[in-house]
Sequence to fold (168 residues):
Amino acid sequence: MPPPSAALLVLFLLPGCQAVLTETTSAVAGIGGASVAQGLGANAALTTGIGLGVQALGRAGLQYAQRRTHGAAQDRIAAAAGPLPVGGTAPWKTDHTIPVEPNERGQVAVSRVISTGELDCKEIVFSVEAGEGAKATRAFYLAAVCRDGPAWKWASAEPATERWGALQ
Fold:
């Protein structure tokens, strides 16, 4: 049987299996922590505590990776939208180095300028496209981006709970 770390690595290579990845990360971390504690000769209560602690750490690590992935997608969308005029559109896409989630693509359009000057912000509409051909789907979201020096950054607190859940 492969070590728990090898099983976890295999799961990171399976983008799109979000529920499996979340639950398996938690389970593998808990089992791995409990195994280490048991190997050290700890009693049942201590073994359980160590297992739960490692499980929580594994879950927190996965959530951190997901937040970073979402942040990267938001940065790509903001960078594509920033230089556009009102009514302008541009494509965007992600290319994740660690495939915690699948790569995404879509279009972004600037619907209006919210403010200019010291606080330069735009309202945007963006799509997220999945699939190819007859099985292609599109979902649309509304957000805001603002200039931060030379770069454009995501400025929405809640872009879409359905899209990113609580892990913005």
The two ends are 36 Å apart (CA to CA). The mean pLDDT is 76. The chain has four helices and five strands.
